Amino acid sequence: MIRLRLFGRCRIYHDPVSPVLRAPAQVGWDAWFRSIELVTPQPLKGEELLRRTRGWWTVEPDDVAEVVKSHGRLVVGDQGELMVECTDDETIAALARAFQERFGDQVQLSP
Amino acid sequence: MALFPEGRFFEASTSVIFERRKPDMVGVRGDRLVLDRTLERAHNTYKARISRPHKGARIANTLPVKRAPMEQGQWEKEPSVRSMRRVFKNMETLQSELLDRLGIQSIDRRLGPVRKTALHLFEQAWSGSARRRIRLEEKDAGDLYVRCLAKALQTGGIAVPLTLLPNNRTAERALEEIG
After folding, report:
1. Best exposed site among A12, B74, B117, B175 by fewest CB in 10 Å?
2. Nearest-by-Cβ selection for A96 from B89, B91, B107
3. Under an 8 A CB cutoff, do A109 and B72 touch?
């Protein structure tokens, strides 16, 4: 399996940027009849992290996810990076071509 | 909107608090608060999501400020945004040219650590240049970055002929100074 990071262009500055999950979401609970102290850290899945780019990237994350799904899968790396996982170099090259055809230079793969 | 000493802003009209992320992202002009557009955008996002009263906040002299979120086309009217776009575009173009000439593909796995090192060197050289009285301008950013990238590539065992580097004495000096 080969993993590469997924970069989109910043909507403001147009430079390549990629989201990183620095810390898991802290989910707590409120209830009508009791107080709940429990806070559970919730790591995001690849597609969930990609969705957080809406409004920050120049492209629509759902469109990016659609292209990725036809070649590989979205994952979150060990350091929280948004990554694409493919089986081999050929698939990676095919995915890069698909990005180029659909989004021009707005979405890129990079180590 | 008022500036609080601990670096927080409070908007009386919506009871929203958000933290200043970087000291240089905000300025005060007369009695008006002038926000960097990036911060303003973050503020608008927070405004939509958070409503949390700030205990003990003094709101007597605050001015309610209503701002519409920035639309896509409006960013282009901002001189600072246009300037940064030019800088990043130039850096990207020069980077691609260098990698092309070296025959390195953009998905080459060696580029991950190389980019990290190059960015570290670039930030060191750029911030250190002011202290050393080296005057770097917008046009120098790309040249300096490519020199940093070349140095990082060489550190990673990839030889970069000097003839591939842009001829810019100012950028060269800025990088020399950090060793």
Report:
1. B74
2. B107
3. no
d(CA A9, CA B85): 11
Quote the ipTM score: 0.89
Nearest C-alpha of chain A: how many angstroms from B165? 22
Instruction: Tell me the three state secondary structure of residue A17.
Output: strand
Interface A–B counts its CB contacts (< 8 A) at 38
- Summarised one tens digit per residue, pLDDT across range A46-61 is 999 999 999 999 999 9
In DSSP terms, B120 is beta-bridged to none
Whole-number Cα distances in Å, B9 to B35, B45, B55, B67, B146? 11, 15, 13, 15, 39
Give the Cα-Cα-Cα angle B172, B175, B179 (nearest 5 degrees). Answer: 130
Give contacts of A12 with chain B, Cβ < 8 Å: 37-38, 41, 75, 81
What is the per-residue pLDDT across B20-70, written as a single tens digit (0 to 9) for each? 444 444 433 333 334 445 555 555 554 554 444 444 444 444 444 455 556
pTM: predicted TM-score of the whole model, two decimal places: 0.74
